[in-house]
Task: structure prediction
Amino acid sequence: MIEQNLSLLLVIIPLLSAPVTAILPNARSAWLLTLAVTWTCLILAGWQITLVTDGSIISYELGGWSPPWGIEYRIDAMNAFVALIVSGIAAITLPYALLSVEKEIPLEKIPLFYSAFQLCLVGLLGIAQTGDVFNLFVFLEISSLSSYALIAMGEQRRSLTAAYQYLIMGTIGATFLLIGIGLIYAETGTLNMLDLNQRLQPILDHRTVHTGFAFIVVGIALKLALFPLHLWLPNAYKYAPSVISVFLAATATKVAVYIMLRMVFGVFSDEFVRKTPTDHMFLLLGAFGVIMASATAIYQRDVKRLFAYSSIAQVSYIVLGIGLSSVLGVTAALVHVFNHALMKGALFMACGALVYRLGSSRFENLNGVGRQMPWTCVAIFIASLSLIGIPGTAGFISKWYFVLAALEQESWPIALVILLGSLLAVGYVWKIVELLFLRPASDSTATVGEAPAALLVPMWLLVIANIYFGFNTELTVNVADTAARMLGLGMNHE
Amino acid sequence: MKHNLILRVIAKYLFPVIALFAFYVQFHGDYGPGGGFQAGVILSVAFIFYALVFGLETTEQVLPPYLLRLLASTGILIYAGTGVATMLMGGNFLDYDLLAKNPVAGQHLGIMMIELGVGISVCAVMLLIFFVIAGRGRS
Amino acid sequence: MIDIILDHYNYWIVIFLMMSGFYTVISQGNLIKKIAGINIFQTSVFLLYISIGYVDDGTPPIIAEGYTTYANPLPHVLILTAIVVGVSTTALGLALVIRIKEAYSTIEEDEIHDKDKSL
Result:
């Protein structure tokens, strides 16, 4: 029974437990329930991915209505991969959350906090599982609404304005997506992704389809924080509670990448992307994004903000991969989705540990803290190496595939941009290393103790994963490759 | 509005009418136009109207916020619980056919349960939003 | 030419609402007005979906004797969901504005910006 309903249970378990969490009387029980739910989801997601890595597909019909009339959950390698990333990060964030949340959130609000966290998880997992474009919009809004609320729970008052700004931008993005979905529904009369793909092929030159496509791409680009539409992201990540920074930085934009891949290649087609200027637009914006965001990161005076800008740069790499619109490009994008989740998870956990001890992530409060909090700061160092793409770390694998994908199409400028981005990353990582290890300690940092083990263990698990997936690429690259091939890339023009 | 006699009298008469209409919309939602969303909103309007005339405190005596929170959660649980029940019976999530002996009756029962869950949740959440925003800055 | 405008008047309304809502969101500095703009913007999408569901000579999609042509009910159902999403967004947005007002004692964007700068 469990295997039969596997794909659905992944979404329904957090959905069932979220309202229960909201009415639990105390913080610890809410945390325990959430912990149990996230680990159950991780196990189910792990199970699910073993069923689809060979290229098979799980199709689940909600309510027993057969597609394309009913809502279908259609799991292929890419869906399972994204679901695994989301539930994995959630499961590893939860042990970390216990102390951090108790410090940053008022006690009586903690059950509601975990309830919103689970709703966010429902939304992100739902996006990963569903095969219906309107259902995808609804899940996107569930995850977005709960993340606005979660960001607003930050300690400083600026978290409110950050959440408000994100709400406005996010709602515009989601509404654009809704308009696009409406227009392609008007043209085809279906909402099922597979059915849409088949029905759209003969009418791809219709003007309504083009308009719908434009709305969809811009809408997702807002959620993705694609370069000129990224303004909401730095503040949202900076002022959110530490746990939420970890969770959103590691999953939210990654899921948006998945939506982009699924809509652009799965619902439309790579041929359509190449016929329209879409691929050039992605390459141009991605290249600008890598350079501008990395350069901006160098000038930040706050660790969390710096890594938020670096996130925008990393997302831009992924967009470059999408813009190459080849199997190798999408493989690189998916591998980087996974690896970047590991890096940013570890980095924001370390930032959270600094905030936990020092109450701030601004540069002037962190002088020379590396001597007092060696574990935390070494974790930042190793994860940053992965961010640059030093061989032996996960980051190297994704950079390698990006360069391969660029060279496959002989687009030297793109390969150059990727290398330049890594050089700029060296720049901002050096700033942090100098700050944490080389500067003399100030009064506040000279007496501070190492972060508690409950924060260090999940952080180091992610750091070790960064090194492990730098050597063992079997899971990431193979699954990403299968997923990219199943998107139907390169089928039309061969 | 303690001294506004006309409003108070009208409110007392209108309240049951609005509530009755909400229940009509709720329980005819399976065959006619209507359903849980609309019914929930209409029912919450009845209470909001009551609160506007008789004050927040009076209304919160009938519907304290903790009860509303409980109701909001219960609604979702009824919805999801129906789906889980069909799963336990061996079908897919929300496969109403299995809920009764014949599929038509099953569909009937299923949509009734779902709409009931939706109605309870929507009504409770609308009232919660109203109470929280209207009651801000009181204490 | 005039026929194109008159026959598709609903779509022109959609475009008008969409643009005015979107412009309000971008141009206004008042946080409440921004939310009002978002609402107008979303309303235009509701109208767009309902227009999609229109069928010539169709009746409301309720089974009754003597009627065989119905409007397409699916866009109506979809947009009901989108309306609920819109209501939640508005509620959350207004709640945030209330808390911003409490924290900054203003809801004008430039004044909030100044207060953060002066810290």
Observations:
- Chain A touches chain B through 16 residues (CB under 8 Å).
